[in-house]
Every structure is written in C-alpha cells, then in structure tokens.
Amino acid sequence: LSTMMGLSAYSRDLLLEYYDGDLKTFFLSHKEIFTVAEETNEVQLTSTKRLKVDKDRSLEARLEDAYQAHDRKRARKIRRQMARQRNPDNPLFDSDRFAEELARFLPRNTFVTLRSFMKNVPPELFDLFPAQHMNPFRNNPKLFKIFEFKQVGKLFVCRPEVPLPEGHLKMSYNEAEIIQLTAAVIQTMGNRPQSIFSLFGRLPWFAREQVRTVHKGLFELLKNYPQYFLIVFRESVNMDARSAHVSLVATPPVVMDDSPVWAEEEPVPAQRNNGNNRRGGNNNNTVSNEEDDPEMAAALAEVRQGFEKAGYSTTKNKNFDLDDDI
C-alpha cells in the first residue's frame, strides 16, 4: 500500500478522483477481490488467500464451507474434484463424453423441465457437472434443445428432433428487443428501480445469453441508452456495476408484440409425440408440480428408468437441493 508507482497514470487519476488517492480505501471497498492484512497492510487477492487457507483442509470441509456461503459454482468445482479423486480415470471427465452421456437419458419423444431432469440425474453423474452447470446444454445444440414455454425462466429440455410446443418463447433476440424486455421487467415490478442483477435474472433465457455473450453484461448494454434508463450506483466510492440500480425514465419503442409472461404460475406445455399433441387440450394448462401432470410424470419415469437400466445409482441426489439456482 506504500506506493502507486506501479499503476498507470490513468489509474492513479481515478484513485485521486474517487478515493482521494487512498489505495487502502479502494482495496477495502472491493473485499470480494482483495484482502488487506490488518497488521502489515499487505494486499493479496481474496482467491489467493482462500487457496492458502484451503491447502491444509479436506475437500469435504471446503465443500461444506461452499454450501454455507451459498457458493454453488465453488461447490460444483469441489464435488468434481472429489469425484476425480474417487475415479481419476473416468472418461466422463471429458466434456464431450459427459454431454453425450447425459443426452442418452432424455425422453425419446417428448420434453421435461430442465430442473426435473437434473433432479433425477444420479449422484455419481451429477457430481461431474462443471462449475458452470449450463455448459453441457448450451455448448451442445446437437444433443440438447433448450426452450422456455410461456413463462420466463422455466426451462425445458428435449432432444433436438423433438418438435417444440406452441407457445414457446423466442429463441433469439436482437438489441432493440432486449431493451424493450428490460423496460417491461421494470414496469412489471411497479416501475420501481431494479438492480442490474435482478433485471438480468428476469430476462428470458435466450435474451440473457445474448447479453452475456455479445454485450458482456447488462450494464454495458443499458449504459448506451440513457434516454430510456437511469443507472445509479449504490455508492460513489464503490462503483460496482453488479449492484447498480436502474430506473425507467422513458418507454422504448415496441418492437415485439408477443411479450413473454412474468407470472407466479408454472405452465407445462402439452406433450407431443412425433409432432402430434397427445393431450388434445389447451397448452396453457398449469400445474404446480411436474409430477402432478400425468404426461410429464411419464416422461420423468422414462428418464429414471433409463438411468437405472444403465446401472446408475437410484439413491436420491441430495446435492441437487443445494444447487437451488438450477
């Protein structure tokens, strides 16, 4: 902390402007990244400190810490390490082989919710998921088809050849559509300011994917539209975009007529078999539990039977309940 000589002139100017040139204040304002020793004022990355602390602790203890901290990505990473310790030669550590193995157990002619599918993945396979648990699905379109039905945020998964039900949400969005969707989210929340984190989480899945991969974050996109959105940071010292709040100051043009639904209901689409609607009823049928829907229950039974026939454990996957962001 004794010198700023290692910083660029631009960085020093920013420190002077926002932190009065006080490096310690800057580091303490970003505790999730930096750790400052109280006695020596030595600075290190928080991740480096955790690695040093974790070095002498068991994987089981580190896993429990991750659960206590609700750090799901870290928990998945540790579970994968534990699985590698148990069976270092498992060919399913290869990401392509793992995705192919998962895809084997999708229902043949229909679809299930992604959450229900993963809930039925046996523990020995579930523990091989990478820290980014969606990667096997998003990176393998030849094996998996992901879609939302009617309601934002409820993902379904099926084989690529299975027809999608009527009422599925769009699977691609342009920039103008994402701007309209973001404004719609704020409006559905009573036009109250919303955090960037909350806004992003309430966008449709494929809109989020577009924001993540093309725009490198919702803040980076919205800052280009001051005519519609006012972005306010929680504090002037710690200008963290993740905690910034967004207000709607003007309604952007309507470029989509079929806006998705943000609702508490959980609609389940009518199942299809080779393109034919087997239910023969209204696709807007809603149930609170997939197992209450006969055809969804049958699809999940097919998933479970597939795992059982392949020799996987039928033990309940306790780790699934700890991954409550799925």
Helix content: 25-40%
Number of strands: 10
Characterize the main sheet: 3 strands, antiparallel
* Alpha carbon gap, first and last residue: 41 Å
Based on helices, strands and strand pairing, what is the structural class? mainly alpha
Unreliable spans: 263-267, 272-288
Radius of gyration over all CA atoms, rounded: 23 Å
**What is the N-to-C order of secondary-structure elements (H for helix, E for strand)?**
HHEEHHHHEHHHEEHEHHHEEEEHH
The main sheet orders its strands as: 3-5-4
Shape descriptor reads: flat
Query: How many alpha or pi helices?
Result: 15
- Portion of residues in beta strands equals 5-15%
Mean pLDDT: 80
Overall description:
The chain is 40% helix and 10% strand. With 326 residues, it is mainly alpha-helical. Strands 3-5-4 form a three-stranded antiparallel beta sheet. The longest helix has 16 residues, at 294-309. The model is unreliable at 263-267 and 272-288 (pLDDT under 50).
